[in-house]
Amino acid sequence: MSPNGHSTLPEPQALEHLTGLPRPVYGHVQTLPNIVLGYRHAHAWGQLSYAIDGILQVHTDHGFYLVPPQRAVWVPAQLQHRVSCPANTCLRSLYLQHAPADWAAAQCRVITISPLVRELIRTFSELPVHYDVHGADGRLVQVLLDQLALAEEQQLMLPLPQNSHLRALCSHLQAEPDAATSLVDWAAQAGVSEKTLSRLFQRETGLSFRLWRQRMRLLSALPALERGERVTDVALACGYDSLSAFIAAFGKQFGLPPGAFFRSRSETEQPPRNPKETAK
Q1: Which domain CATH number covers 103?
Q2: Is the per-residue pLDDT at 18 higher than 90?
Q3: Are residue 180 and residue 73 in the same domain, yes or no?
Q4: Model confidence over 212-252: pLDDT tens digits?
Q5: Where are the alpha helices (DSSP H) in 100-208?
Q6: Contact 83/58 with Cβ under 8 angstroms?
Q7: 141 and 26 together in one domain
Q8: Looking at 101, 121, 156, which one is the last position of a domain?
């Protein structure tokens, strides 16, 4: 039992063996170590993980989701996925028996956590496990779910193709975001025309090769920016020839310049100082 009245949450592997949640919404605080969860797994319930600090990465068969601070990722029930994160990552997680209204049931989504939702999650994490669903605590939970249903979705997902040749191409580009290899070069290596490869890429990912690579490069920049690296260095490392081009593309994709994307971080809650006080 944690100091705030929570029972200890089982490790992720044990969650699959539970027959039900103690309440329709269950919350806990979790500080993740620097371990890449390379195994694929799924939960019997939907999971919302809100990044307080650090960057969370979720990998599914169809896409890669990157979750910076002040954002959260929704992982539907029974969806196979794996998770990775740096050592400084600190999360607040909610397990939901049912998804909020109008949420896509079959795919992940990254949403913005507003100041109101942040405070609702923090307050909920202090409730006892067996809170009164018909009393004030239950009403707080309903407000939280209503606000989550209204949360703005962000384009922090990179779609991945199912075709093995395109998958290898995308893996190479993700490993080397500054690679200058063009679609013409990739088509020549594959022994097909550029037009054929372009059509296949669009069909498999829903994006043109140019837009996919641009989004991949911008997503690859976020961990370095979150660590406080110089914007100029980050821009060059992810394949941009000039700082102005990077800033323009970043603003178009995320609606904010790089310097402002993490600026309100100081206003967010701080991660627990003593890991022993977190309920796993």
Answers
A1: 2.60.120.280
A2: no
A3: no
A4: 999 999 999 999 998 899 999 999 999 999 999 999 999 99
A5: 115-124, 136-150, 164-175, 183-190, 194-205
A6: yes
A7: yes
A8: 156
- 277 pLDDT tier (thresholds 50, 70, 90): very low
Model's pTM, two decimal places?
A: 0.79
The number of domains in the chain is 2
Task: Give the confidence band of 85 by pLDDT, cuts at 50, 70, 90.
Answer: confident
Helices (H), ranges, the chain = 12-15, 115-124, 136-150, 164-175, 183-190, 194-205, 209-226, 231-237, 243-254, 258-261
Residue 5 pLDDT grade (very low, low, confident, very high; cuts 50, 70, 90): very low
Please give the Cα distance from 85 to 67 (Å, whole number).
10
Do 214 and 88 fall within a single domain?
A: no
Provide the residue type at 19 as one letter: T
- Buried b / exposed e over 160-177, threshold 16 CB at 10 Å, is bbeeeebeebbeebbeeb
Residue 265 DSSP symbol: G
Examine the domain organization and report whether 60 and 166 are in the same domain.
no
Do 22 and 138 lie in one domain? The reply is yes
- Given 139, 156, 173, the domain boundary residue is 156
Cβ-count burial 72-88 (b if 16+ within 10 Å, e if not): bbbbbbebebebbbbee
The residue segments making up the domain with residue 152 are 12-156
Out of 8-17, 41-50, 54-63, which region has the weakest mean confidence (pLDDT)? 8-17
Q: What is the pLDDT of residues 117-130, one digit of tens each?
A: 999 998 998 888 88
* 129 lies in the same domain as 167: no
98 domain-assigned? yes
The closest alpha carbon to 226, from 259, 174, 255, 262, belongs to 262
What is the model's pLDDT at position 189? 87
